[in-house]
């Protein structure tokens, strides 16, 4: 069975690098875009938190130092021993009029509480505490996201706030301040609020007579504000993810679904080919897939059509000798008494039976050859040596028989030209061409088989040339002779000795080896057949 002509091409190695693929680059970019936005947001928020904590601590330290100086000037005495007047200390603390978010406490050197701004201020509002509640899902999610960002990107962006304000108990903070140094910490107060606390010593001359603690309880609001600041980044990341997902769906999923639907239509018989021109024009793997699937379906339908035509041709070719045999048998019933006529009828029947046998044998060989082409793997061979081996079998066969001779010529000058193919089918090509040339050659003629080297663009090719000195081929039949069952021969040639499949098989094998075959007439007389194959 025939196959459409194919052009050979060099292997495509462009897909060796994954990033050379447009789809691969699109997938990488879309997956990294959202992550890049989250990384940027985490880095910015981490820097914002560090800057805020440091600024808050420095602000509280400045206020605590001012308040400590006021207490040292107005509530401490130095005779006979430096001490703090508790009444004056409470009055001074009350006169400070601290804002609601700031709480000041004065302690004695032993740790006893002397005054608390929450209870000394005239603006104190007494209200019942709200009932304890579990954190909301949004709060838990925001806390988890913050912890994940800190743990993931902490190595990239240092947490300056964590270094500046440590988490420690009030006893540790008080001990540092009582020794004459400043201390700052983060912790939860008695109301369950996260606070930043700064403790400084209250000194008279150089003696520590008390400790002033200033606390800020608006840290939770700042954290909530930070989480709210993360929402735009999350929204942008989600938006980018939706956009990239939509692009992936439009660019990959939808074309693949259309290809699948078109393939189902071909399978069900509602369509004979994949008609997806927009997808086939894409310059990526999906476009290549669409073109490959289109070529595959076209090749399948061409193969099916070729098989149907082959079956019709076989039926027609078999029917002709069968009709002749039936006619001879019917005629024999009427001429039983005529020995001469009976002999001629027997000769016709024997001739047609031989014709049927050759036809069935060639059809069987053609089917076996097609199966061999499909199953047998290719191998690299020295084409000149291979052709010479095939020609040598004809030289041995003609030793004891009269008739045309076959000669071999290596026109590559020993270049060792190599071709990748299958020995059985390629041997059949050479034998069919030689047999065809012998059938048209005179008894004293010579069939020349020659191997040449040529080039088509960057591709080196091997040419197998078979020449005879017969009558040649009519110009209008140079292409038609490769049709199946074509048996038009010159006058005087014996009829029925050829099935008309030989040259058709040659063309089929050449096509499966990514090559081509053609016929031409020699200027000096005779025909020339050329098989051109890509060299490896």
From TrEMBL:
Residue span(s) of domain Histidine kinase: 313-536
EC class (word): transferase
Entry annotated with the keyword Cell wall biogenesis/degradation: no
Stored SMART domains: HAMP, HATPase_c, HisKA
Pfam families in the record: HAMP, HATPase_c, HisKA, Sensor_TM1, Stimulus_sens_1
CDD domains in the record: HAMP (cd06225), HisKA (cd00082)
Alphabetical UniProt keywords: Kinase, Membrane, Phosphoprotein, Transferase, Transmembrane, Transmembrane helix, Two-component regulatory system
HAMP domain boundaries: 250-305
Primary location group: membrane
Reaction catalysed by this enzyme: ATP + protein L-histidine = ADP + protein N-phospho-L-histidine
PANTHER family: SENSOR HISTIDINE KINASE TRCS, SENSOR HISTIDINE KINASE YKOH
Full protein name: histidine kinase
Species in which this protein is naturally found: Henriciella marina
